[in-house]
Design a protein that fits this description.
mainly beta
Length: 278
């Protein structure tokens, strides 16, 4: 059928129209105006909403949609004041600590004193061969193993070996490198454990009593004559023992030095010689 456009009333907006008309082939068609209306466009604006930020979408069809951005922990949202943007920032501030130390037995405690949060404590515990000390909040860790000193017998199944040519004179026990001035008396102990050289000026006839004898060990005893015709004899551990004189006799002439060399051949037997300066 014929359509007279002069019969149409002019509308001012899409709300004035229910349908548009057209045709397909020979058919007349009604089309809802919403199917062909122009797409809606949006304007964007932002605004501060307490600690949060809102984004408002205003449509060209006068519709509005609001999106709220919520600030999480340690986050701040700040509107830029222009109404179309905002800033996201972190408000996290790390804690600060004051460090102190204290002795805890053989260990050292490192104390972290927090300015705001919880305090913390770290304990430094020494392992074998390590020592830990502290002074004025300075912790010192020392390796004690290289200079460790062992006293007493070495026991256990593990073999202990010492490399050749490493024992110096300084490391030898005092019984092999020192001198002991004996005190005059009727009986004077000569302790094989204390010295290598013993000296004595008697004030009476004297018995030299050997203590702590060690088989194979030789000691030297220098007795200076007192000029009193004193005699010299030996015992071991307070008993007679066996003392085999190889050569020489004791001379008590004043200031005469008698050099006595005595070697232990068993727990109760000794060989010795006495000589004077020629």
């Amino acid at each position: 059928m014929a359509i007279k456009f002069s019969q149409f009333t002019v509308g001012s907006s899409t709300s004035d129209i229910d349908y548009l008309v057209g045709y397909k082939n020979t058919d007349n068609i009604q089309i809802p105006v919403g199917l062909v209306a122009a797409n809606t466009t949006y304007g964007v604006s932002t605004a501060q909403a307490g600690a949060n930020e809102t984004i408002t979408l205003t449509g060209s069809d006068s519709s509005t949609d609001t999106i709220t951005i919520t600030a999480g922990n340690d986050i701040s949202l700040t509107d830029d004041g222009a109404g179309n943007g905002f800033t996201i920032a972190s408000t996290f501030v790390g804690d600060t600590y004051t460090i102190g130390t204290s002795t805890n037995g053989s260990s050292v405690d490192v104390n972290l004193d927090a300015a705001a949060g919880a305090d913390s404590n770290i304990t430094l515990t020494p392992a074998t061969g390590i020592s830990i000390s502290q002074a004025a909040d300075v912790v010192t860790i020392t390796n004690t193993e290289p200079n460790a000193t062992h006293t007493g017998d070495v026991t256990g199944s593990a073999a202990l070996t010492i490399a050749n040519d490493v024992v110096s004179y300084e490391k030898v026990d005092n019984e092999f490198k020192t001198s002991d001035a004996l005190t005059a008396a009727a009986t004077v102990d000569v302790n094989f454990d204390t010295a290598q050289i013993f000296t004595l000026t008697p004030t009476s006839s004297t018995t030299l009593n050997i203590t702590n004898p060690k088989i194979g060990i030789t000691k030297a005893i220098i007795v200076t004559g007192a000029g009193g015709s004193y005699t010299l004899s030996f015992t071991v551990g307070g008993a007679a023992g066996t003392f085999n004189k190889i050569a020489g006799d004791y001379d008590d002439t004043s200031s005469t030095k008698n050099f006595i060399q005595i070697i232990c051949v068993s727990a109760t037997e000794f060989w010795y010689s006495i000589s004077q300066i020629s």
